[in-house]
Design goal:
The complex is a heterodimer of chains A (about 220) and B (about 80). In chain A, strand 1 and strand 2 form a beta hairpin. Chain A starts with a helix and ends in an 11-residue tail after the last helix. Chain A is built from ten helices and two strands, in the order H-H-H-H-H-E-E-H-H-H-H-H. Chain A is globular. Chain A folds into two domains: about 120 residues, Rna Polymerase Sigma Factor, Chain: A (Orthogonal Bundle); about 90 residues, Arc Repressor Mutant, subunit A, CATH 1.10.10.10. The C terminus of chain A is likely disordered. Chain B has a single domain, classed as Arc Repressor Mutant, subunit A, CATH 1.10.10. The longest helix of chain B has 18 residues. The relative contact order of chain B is 0.10. The chains are: A mainly alpha (about 220), B mainly alpha (about 80). Chains A and B meet through helix 2, helix 3, helix 4, helix 6 and helix 7 of A and helix 1, helix 3 and helix 4 of B.
């Protein structure tokens, strides 16, 4: 309980600092925008990537997202919702990009594409993730397994799963970003989790997972 | 007491602590006696722990620098922290 109170306090402080930053940017200190977005650059990228599965496209969408966020910062009504607002812009931008490119993708990648059980288009290949020098082989193995599992998820499940379980947005925030009801988010999340579990469970016997802190009686939940 | 199919149906809500206390108690009672369901809950939690680790998906090298460079150019505002 003490830890939860601490986290809640920290979150409140972050929101307060963020609100102050936003006010200063609106007041003319434009360079502070970089400070405002820095904690969320990763989130915005992953949101775009969850829709597009392509590194270059996701990076372009991030750029457009942040340019829009800067231009429309005055329209952000609740300063404390900056992160969810950014995700919303990113997902919308990525979906627009996907719509625009889809026809082209159908034509050029036909032999590399597959239909999901729900008839949605899904490219077979994920763009490569570039390694950073300090990466260890085990992390590489985890990453490959997670990416492969994500690739096999139907699009609508993947978006919910990435936002909720990988970016830790609340159900309400995920619903707002994706334009869904909270109930739909929960339903899709449930199915996504079952599918991800099914795909990743075979990895749980591997050596890397035995080193995770929860393995020997120290569960994080 | 709830049965396996109800546990499966409520798995996600149970993990998110989004079930009422009565149902939660019934699920926990079921889990104590059902190895299959307890493995299901346990492995789902472990999966969530693994995917929730931010290191599991890296952003591309140079992403932040490229982003700030484009923003600086298009917004005409310099990022004082990037040198």
């Amino acid at each position: 309980m003490a830890e939860r109170n601490f986290l809640a306090t920290t979150e409140t402080e972050v929101m307060r600092d963020e609100s102050a930053l936003i006010e200063r940017i609106r007041g003319g200190e434009k360079a502070l925008f970089y400070e405002l977005i820095r904690p969320y650059e990763r989130n915005v990228y992953l949101s775009a990537y969850s829709v597009l599965h392509n590194q270059a496209d996701a990076e372009e969408v991030v750029q457009e997202t942040l340019l829009k966020a800067f231009t429309h910062l005055d329209q952000l009504r609740a300063n404390g919702k900056f992160k969810a607002w950014l995700m919303l812009i990113a997902v919308n931008e990525a979906r627009m990009r996907r719509r625009k490119d889809r026809q082209h993708l159908y034509e050029s990648l036909e032999e590399h594409a597959m239909e999901t059980e729900e008839g949605e288009f899904m490219p077979r290949q994920f763009a490569d993730w570039r390694e950073i020098p300090s990466d260890i082989a085990e992390r590489k193995e985890i990453r490959a397994a997670v990416q492969s599992a994500l690739e096999n998820l139907p699009e609508k499940y993947r978006e919910v799963f990435v936002l909720r379980d990988m970016q830790h947005l609340s159900v309400a925030e995920t619903a707002a970003v994706l334009g869904l009801t909270a109930s739909a988010v929960k339903t899709q999340l449930h199915r996504a989790r079952l599918q991800m579990r099914e795909q990743l469970t075979p990895m749980f016997g591997k050596s890397w997972i035995e080193k995770l802190p929860f393995w020997k009686g120290k569960n994080p939940w | 007491m709830v049965k396996c199919d109800r546990v499966l149906q409520e798995l996600s809500n149970y993990i998110d602590e989004d079930v009422d206390p009565v149902l939660r108690g019934e699920i926990e009672e079921h889990l104590r006696g059902c190895h299959r369901c307890s493995v299901l809950v346990d492995s789902t939690r472990k999966m969530l722990y693994v995917v929730g680790d931010e290191r599991v998906l890296e952003i591309p090298i140079g992403y932040s620098e490229r982003l700030h460079s484009v923003l600086s150019e298009r917004l005409g505002i310099r990022d004082h922290d990037s040198c």
